[in-house]
From TrEMBL:
InterPro entries: PPR_rpt, TPR-like_helical_dom_sf. Keywords: Repeat. This is Pentatricopeptide repeat protein. It comes from the Eukaryota. PPR repeats lie at residues 9-43, 80-114. It holds the Pfam family PPR_1. Belongs to the PPR family. P subfamily. Signal peptide: none annotated.
Length: 143
């Protein structure tokens, strides 16, 4: 972008990271993020949400969880509703609904208004998890 004399600011860098993440190239998104920091551009919640979503889209849920916890623990960025939604979706994706519900409770505890989509995601994942368990039980004869 610099070679093309495109102005590099937080907006253009977030767009570049978002493109990488939507192309399932989250590692490249993190590389752009490194460039982001080298240029002295301060990342915002949108930047971290995009990277988190990229990890979840690529089924790298454990990495997403570690990244999310690091943001929260090290007070790098206060997680917003979008980050919470992304983590809830990722946790449900791997069938970890109990932690997803705990995260939903944390949203309320921190004063965020949760979106109905959070509850819907958890319910849908719970139903599909139960169906897969019933399917396994029916076809294998064992629990």
């Amino acid at each position: 972008m610099c070679a093309l004399r495109v102005p590099v600011d937080d907006y253009t860098m977030n767009i570049a990271i978002n493109c990488c993440c939507h192309l399932s190239c989250t590692n490249e998104g993190f590389a752009v993020f490194g460039f982001f920091l080298k240029r002295g551009i301060r990342p915002d919640a949108w930047t971290f949400s995009t990277l988190l979503n990229g990890l979840v889209r690529e089924d790298r849920i454990l990495e997403a969880e570690i990244f999310f916890k690091k943001l929260f623990k090290d007070k790098i960025c206060e997680p917003d509703v979008v980050m919470y939604n992304t983590m809830i979706k990722g946790l449900c994706k791997i069938g970890n609904n109990v932690i997803a519900i705990q995260l939903l409770k944390r949203i309320v505890k921190h004063g965020h208004i949760f979106v109905f989509r959070n509850i819907t995601t958890i319910v849908i994942c719970s139903i599909s998890l139960r169906r897969s368990m019933v399917f396994k039980m029916d076809h294998s004869g064992n629990c």
